[in-house]
Amino acid sequence: MRWEEGGKKARKRATRRGGEKEERRREGREQGIKSYVKNK
Question: Which residue intervals are annotated with compositional bias (Basic and acidic residues) in the record (predicted)?
Answer without folding.
Answer: 17-32
